[in-house]
Amino acid sequence: MSVPILDSDSLTMYVCVSVLCKIGNEVVLASKLFLQYKCQEIFRFVTVFTVIFSLAAGCERKNEHSFRGIPCVGGGLVRGQHGVDSGNAYSTPMFQLFGGPAWGPLHTFYALSPSTFFNIVPNRHNSWTTTPKILTVSDLDKVPEWEGPLPWRDTVDPQTAIALAKRMVGKELLYRRHRCNCRHYTDYLLYGETFGTWWDVTYMTISDDCPLHEPLNSATNVTSSSFTLRDGFGNTTPLGPVDPNL
């Protein structure tokens, strides 16, 4: 069998094509390995993420300091049918697969009536602020879970708390993801104080610039025009008018 003789140009072309094919095969193989590696990494990350948040969530929801979640994540809202009791605190989870156990980040809120609640989330235009709103429980996509009032704590009379909450609606207030979030606002309305700790990153000690340092109890006249929110430096935050229906 005779072997064809290639001229120099053909030989050069043959070598180049062979090299390119070899490189192409290596690129395809490398791409497959890379994608496989990234999938493994993504799976590992999701697994670790799940474990961490599950631990952060905690299996025991009776801890007096913890609402078991990342603060004020919010989440998609779709229509549902749920009920709450006014003057109580509730939470909804971000994750709840196929109606199973809830876990992960939670959003907490104060119920103003059986059908409405006081909602705190960071503003989209400025995540360092929040503009409280009144939402309806029919907007919640998950069943709210009761969080308080806890029996061993003094509480603010619901009429007082609700009157204050309505004066806060529509006002741009300070928001801190760890130290002045929905849990601080909810506890302030519920108990007149907050219970954050330095070791709980989801509910840390209230910041000095958070406007929830003004003493609050059932005897506080929150409908007075002179009543304002106050931060730890003494700076005041004006509130809206009193709801005439109260």
Poorly predicted tracts of residues? 45-81
Strand content: 5-15%
Rg, Å, rounded: 28 Å
Q: Order of strands across the widest beta sheet?
A: 5-3-2-1-6
Q: Tell me the series of helices and strands, N- to C-terminal.
A: HEEEEEEHEHEE
Structural class: alpha+beta
Total strands: 9
Shape: globular
Largest sheet: 5 strands, antiparallel
N-to-C terminal Cα separation, in Å? Answer: 105 Å
Query: Percent range for helical residues?
Result: 25-40%
How would you sum up this structure, described in words?
The protein has a five-stranded antiparallel sheet with strand order 5-3-2-1-6. A two-stranded antiparallel ribbon has the order 4-7. Mean pLDDT is 76; it is low at 45-81. The radius of gyration is 28 Å and the shape is globular. The protein has helices at residues 8-57, 158-168, 182-191, and strands at 89-95, 103-111, 116-119, 129-130, 133-136, 145-148, 173-174, 229-230, 236-237. The longest helix is centred in the first third of the chain and has 50 residues, at 8-57. With 246 residues, the protein is an alpha+beta fold.
